[in-house]
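Why predict the complex rather than its parts? Because the way molecules touch one another can change local conformation, and only a joint prediction can capture that. The input here totals 519 residues.
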Amino acid sequence: MSDLSLETAQAATATRRPARVLDVVVLIAVVLGLWHVIGTWTHGVAIAPPLQTLVYLAGLLHTEMFWSHAAATLEAFLLAFVLSALMGLALGLIFGVRRFAGEVAEPILAGFYTIPKVTLYPVVLLLFGLGMSAKVAFGVMHGLVPMTLFTLGAVRNLPPVLVRTARVLRLSPGRTMRWVLIPACLPDIVNGLRISFSLSLLGVLIGEMFSSQRGLGFLLVNGMAQNNVPLSTAIVTVIVAIAIAANTLMLRFVRRFARRADEMAG
Amino acid sequence: MRRRRAAFVVRAAILAALIAMLEVGCRTGAIDPLTVIPPSDMVASMVGQIGSGELDASIVSTFSTILIAFVLAVILGIATGATIHRFARLRDVADPLLASYYSVPTFIFYPLLVALLGLGKAPLVVLGILSAVPAVVISTLSGLDSVAPVLMKVARVHRLTAARTLWWIVLPAALPHLFTGFKLALSYALIGVIAGEFILSGSGLGYAISFAYQSFDNRTMYGAMLFVLLVAVIANGILYMWEGRLARRRSRG
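Output of the joint prediction:
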């Protein structure tokens, strides 16, 4: 798990306590201020100032072009995320319960997690061809491993008494999973989902940026190539906003489940 | 211990079997040579490219960029982490940022950085720093948090100067956390820089791979790819072992 230690440390900071509204407001004001300074200071050659971006974005949201690209990204991302989550959950549970298989697989997975996967994208393109399936496969390559490792770690660190109780009650493997393993591991599973969400999004976007004719990643690179600064800034803004919103939502779940688990344990 | 060795043997056997299957599949024509080339050819291509010096310029360019980004990220990260740790109010404000930083695909800022700084080393260095800094900040914070208050009291009782407190008390206590941060920072910087080169740049290993892909030169592409992956795996492995040794020495002492 040591390669995931940052994410766990990060989760620990994040679960410390919910952010106060004032702090968030101050933070947003600081970020907007910096953005404005950089935007105006460089005369908008690279980054459009916040106000101009928002005005442009409002116009962009009325165009069909934007929504068709957004739909392409959304479709690829949802497929990649759901596949990563389900396969990662299944693999993590299997590797967690079957200890030896877990010991064999974990270093391979952890090693794969830390290599620069971008370099493998040409292979994915050669295997799947240009288009949707390559983007999805690349998203899964990013999202699958963290989900597996988080689930695996959660199952492994489970109090042994829970598993023994399930055995005493003669629960079937399926019921053990449904009633014991998954509820007990829920905070870690949601944390895994959180990391998996952002990484499969990253995978899909990199895929679109490298060689694709569709999607927000393509629109971003294209906006830059055509020197359409408000367009590329607006796309970045949209992606950042979506990523932060999803992350915050899932962190809330993690906090709630962690609290509930604490109450149960106490 | 025996179990760990058994796991190691099985792991090695599985990996070897996979490589052998790929080799056989490619040699018998079950796998299209336009898609994947045999692993032995990949190794030969890698050795050839390194031996002939074709890759030298790319290697120097990529690793110097990674090194600059890493060193700057460590300096910036420790300074930021220490400042945030010192002022609790600042930390409250920075907390949501740190919690959500890695959910944002930092990489999408790269086109903006290229437009801002021009195509060259500068946007890659900034991208590497952006990817690596939060790891250092977070590990500095948790390292400073882990200094036991009683140790600070001991320092005060002995009337240590600030510099000596830092050197004798704070640093040894925070070091394991910091080391984890450095390790992550290095691998994030590596990923960021190579990804940047791959998507949009005119030099470096990432560019060499994407150039070979675009010119349908599979042999060169797979050789360069293998080289990058081997370097990444070996670097991470060394840091991982080093970290394990630090942790063991700490638990002994």
